């Protein structure tokens, strides 16, 4: 073999070597990995250049972005924010009351929740467009999860306290996730999960509300019902038709409330069975610190509810904030937003509010009304404050059926069948995730739907790891590039050489699969060659370009593959292994087994070296090597 | 822009196009994906060429490999198998009795379990080296999981019935996994998990047994204890020293049993407090069909125990089978092995056996004794049968302390600190998985250890997906290849062009991270260029070679990145996207947004095209394009 080796070395002298990375101290690697994982946005970069007092100001500005933008606040901004703020307040008041009813909480909580949390968010939030408030899905979740243990009708006080406690825990969780930089947990709720989940929740809420509405038909004339429903449905349709109807659409809920209340007031329908909101206490949020239930057994229910609703609310709020930030081209720091959401919910739980986040509908109205900064939230909070102080008696005669209609109208917008269709068109598995979440919520429960969707999403990721794609590569004519033969029909295979591309990291979950798959590729290729009477196989080149990571099982698999190929008198050649692969091959001594000479920078160079040896053997004097005679070599 | 486009088109005319794959019918893709996922080994390949009667024989041979190898069985094979079979029987009898005690089951069950299951496996198994029997870890798990609900001492009959039922469910699960081709579930128990788990279980068992042994010291002279312990420990050491001591080592347990029994018999130590096995019923396995507990509430415990022990036993058995198959260069079909294990445990549960698998120690002895086929299992079963029929009275005086020593000696071999050290050296996360499993088992429970290890393993996979590596690529001098600049110190960056490699599929779990990371790379690069007074950035090339898969969140991320770059007046260029990426970019219309002209086969061609335009702009007449004046272009 001495001659072959020499010839081989001559042939590959031009080839590039793949270096083994110089070992770095363990702590070094560990720290840099930790940084990449938890601080990918490098939040301290801006502090590094500053010092002393400036650094403190920077830190203050980091946690309270209001100090960053307030100095540049202009009157023009204020005018825009004022209009936007009043617009969202007119939406916030009826929606707040409706959603509080949905959560089986006293309606006044909806107003309280539109007062304190927006003020906190205005100071701490980094979004300019997010309008803070309660959301239907979280309200529904709260009702369904707390309702399992405590009946809102039989023990209203305990139920209320548990709602505050759940809000408190949700806030603590949100802030902790932000502080611990675990924001990526929220990323595991994919867009498709949320589409399906929201659609399912909306369907459930609509059916619930419709039941209530239809139940009313026996007690009263259905004129107002039909009119309200019609007006609501027309609003929904109009709101989809563009900005012409925007103001009408935004004002619809408040108009419905006013009209509905007037009809009841003058017709005295409340004495004929039409349920109305009834008395609302005047005055601002009472403190609720003493109402937190921090002892078992009820604390556990509140804790669980807080966790689930907190994550859901976070996912919605951050997705909404990111979407609008993208439209306006500014950056949202996910972890910072989480801290703001957490602080606003903790503050809320101490002032008789329940879970708030950034609802999509309200934020969209805020954005369309031309808001410039978080001041629109302040304006909304002030409008709600005035309502709390002076206008609560006006809601006495508001019929519940109007609230139901408001909920339904908001809910119908959440059933995003177009998004579902898009998912089907682009990615079938995402569609399955979406439908799984939808069906889970509709036929199971909100939690079942959520768990189903997250499980399917994670299973998809795991399946990708467990069953990576492995394909045969061929040479693209007129280039040195080797690409998948199923993707590039023109790619040509090389006689005597089998080039395989591995498309995933090699982990315990796929090491066995890959080993078996490689042996099947070789068997199939040998069968094919035998049938066609072509040259036999001599080299198996593995393109490791996409193998970004490898674990000990993967290393064993490489070792075993090398052995298996040796028994078949085939040479294993690696092309383009990454630094992690090289490092681990080296530290496990598998590199010595494979031979550093058989590792190339590119598939092209690897094929070149293989061809060179095949040539040398054919043209000449080297016959020791088993079955290389009569070889149809490739130029 | 007309001129730029023309110049650009001229420059890239030589470049290769990346085709959009022709759409295939949904059912087609679905079926081929299903096949890749569940039938990667193409088990029907061998049937395709056959027909009629031959096909039936093939199918019979598939499920009962004995029909495949039996016709070629020779006398030489039998001589080897006879020796190996007798050797493993001499190990199986004392180990069987010991492990049954470990599982808190009557000792005779250990003998029963070495009779029926090996016969079933000999017919159905595809391994030539696996010796079937009970294992310590599964025995321990059985005791710990069943023991939580039913006390083996207070309700021995119920406990026994539950053990049979758990075995039955384990067998059904194993066979189902094989038939449903879900063998990859076992792959999620990585090698590092098993090393840690086994070590932890071995530690717990040793401590338990030592307690028993040390407790005995007060009752009797410790001569025989010390001698047995010494002999056992010396055996362990010897067995590590190679094949010279092999026979001694293999015969040690039986020798200890015989010596221990003789000592007790002649010294009447059983009357001085040394516990002995006592009476063992003569006769073969009684049927136990009627003893299966198939009604709640106890069924659920048995079901859960069966699931957990079944998976563990499967993982051990298949790993052992694969290891020896690799030594001898034959193939083990994982799914077929599962069916064999399942059948052997279902048969076992009906004939008074408890959970069996292929223990490493016994299989290693089998292999070392020179076994040729599964006939060695038949010989062992026959030897155990003879023992059951005639020799059970001999075990009456066997002291339990000998059994404890046998267990400890087997357990010490399971604490594979060398493997743990290897894990630490090669892969720190695998080491954490291993230590997690170990500590979980030692300080928590067997289930906690297992769950910890599997969770850490899966978290690692998820973290890889959530935080993929994204690196800057540079040109390797004298080549068209672009590689990671941190891996290849010689790689050179291209002025005006930022080349980024994405090392993972783009999924919901990492889409946000990647978007932010790309923007940080660009910001850092622009900062760097500004500080050095170099050319500004014009092109961002994403090397998509390792992006084997993308979902709808990933597609949105691409769209948003394109928009974000546009606002910064940067051009997004893609290099080497795979067929799935191209298909989804196309079906979601994002391909139109990016522009098919900006997608290249290789990074080299993409850089070439970018440089060509930068040149044309510099040398000439094209000034419309924002900030391209005074450009220091690259040749």
Automatic annotation (TrEMBL), chains A, B:
The chain crosses the membrane at residues 73-93, 130-147, 159-182, 188-207, 244-266, 307-327, 373-391, 398-415, 435-463. Keywords: Membrane, Transmembrane, Transmembrane helix, Transport. The keyword Oxidoreductase does not apply. The keyword Transmembrane helix applies. One of its GO terms (cellular component) is membrane. One of its GO terms (molecular function) is secondary active sulfate transmembrane transporter activity. PROSITE patterns: SLC26A, STAS. InterPro entries: S04_transporter_CS, SLC26A/SulP_dom, SLC26A/SulP_fam, STAS_dom, STAS_dom_sf. Residues 487-610 form the STAS domain. This is Sulfate transporter 3.1. It comes from Dendrobium catenatum. The lineage of its organism: Eukaryota, Viridiplantae, Streptophyta, Embryophyta, Tracheophyta. The gene is SULTR3:1.
């Amino acid at each position: 073999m001495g001659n072959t080796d020499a010839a081989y070395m001559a042939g590959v002298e031009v080839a590039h070597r793949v270096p083994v990375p110089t070992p770095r101290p363990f702590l070094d690697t560990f720290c840099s990995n930790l940084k990449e994982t938890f601080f990918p946005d490098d939040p301290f970069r801006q502090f590094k250049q500053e010092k002393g007092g400036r650094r403190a100001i920077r830190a203050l500005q980091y946690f309270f972005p209001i100090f960053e933008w307030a100095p540049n606040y202009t009157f023009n901004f204020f005018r825009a924010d004022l209009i936007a703020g009043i617009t969202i307040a007119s939406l916030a008041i009826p929606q707040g009351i409706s959603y509080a009813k949905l959560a089986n909480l006293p309606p006044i909580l909806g107003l309280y929740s539109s007062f304190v949390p927006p003020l906190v968010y205005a100071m701490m939030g980094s979004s300019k467009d997010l309008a803070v408030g309660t959301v239907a899905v979280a309200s529904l979740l709260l009702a369904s999860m707390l309702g399992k243990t405590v009946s809102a009708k039989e023990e209203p006080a305990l139920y209320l306290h548990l709602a505050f406690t759940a809000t408190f825990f949700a806030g603590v969780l949100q802030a902790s996730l932000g502080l611990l930089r675990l924001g990526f947990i929220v990323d595991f709720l994919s867009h498709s999960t949320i589409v399906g989940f929201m659609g399912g929740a909306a369907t459930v809420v609509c059916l619930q509300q419709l039941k209530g509405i239809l139940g009313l038909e026996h007690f009263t004339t259905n004129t107002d019902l039909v009119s309200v429903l019609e007006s609501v449905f027309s609003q929904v349709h109009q709101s989809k038709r563009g900005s012409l109807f925007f103001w009408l659409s935004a004002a619809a809920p408040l108009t419905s409330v006013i009209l509905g209340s007037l009809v009841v007031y003058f017709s005295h329908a409340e004495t004929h069975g039409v349920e109305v909101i009834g008395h609302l206490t005047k005055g601002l949020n009472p403190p609720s610190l003493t109402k937190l239930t921090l002892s078992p057994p009820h604390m556990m229910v509140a804790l669980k509810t807080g966790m689930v609703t907190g994550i859901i609310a976070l996912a919605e709020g951050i997705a909404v904030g990111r979407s609008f930030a993208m439209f306006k081209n500014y950056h949202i720091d996910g972890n910072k937003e989480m801290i703001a959401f957490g602080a606003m919910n903790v503050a809320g739980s101490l002032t008789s509010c329940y879970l708030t986040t950034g609802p999509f509908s309200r934020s969209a109205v805020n954005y369309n009304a031309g808001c410039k900064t978080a001041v629109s939230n302040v304006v909304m909070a002030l409008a709600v404050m005035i309502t709390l102080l002076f206008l609560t008696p006006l809601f006495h005669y508001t019929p519940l059926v109007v609230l139901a209609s408001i909920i339904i109208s908001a809910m119908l917008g959440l059933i995003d069948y177009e998004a579902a269709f898009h998912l089907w068109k682009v990615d079938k598995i995402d569609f399955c995730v979406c439908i799984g979440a939808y069906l889970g919520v509709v036929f199971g429960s909100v939690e079942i739907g959520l768990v189903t969707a997250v499980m399917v999403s994670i299973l998809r990721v795991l399946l990708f790891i467990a069953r990576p794609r492995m394909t045969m590569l061929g040479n693209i004519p007129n280039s040195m590039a080797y690409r998948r033969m199923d993707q590039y029909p023109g790619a040509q295979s090389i006689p005597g050489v089998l080039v395989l591309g591995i498309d995933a990291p090699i982990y315990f979950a796929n090491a066995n699969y890959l080993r078996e798959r490689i042996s099947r590729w070789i068997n199939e290729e040998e069968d094919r060659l035998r049938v066609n009477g072509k040259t036999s196989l001599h080299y198996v080149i593995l393109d490791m370009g996409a193998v970004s990571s490898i674990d000990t099982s993967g290393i064993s698999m490489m070792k075993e593959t090398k052995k298996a190929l040796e028994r078949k008198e085939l040479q294993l050649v690696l092309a383009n292994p990454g630094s992690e692969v090289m490092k681990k091959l080296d530290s496990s001594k598998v590199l010595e087994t494979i031979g550093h000479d058989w590792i190339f920078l590119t598939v092209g160079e690897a094929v070149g070296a293989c061809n060179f040896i095949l040539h040398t053997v054919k043209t000449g004097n080297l016959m020791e090597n088993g079955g290389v005679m009569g070889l149809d070599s490739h130029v």
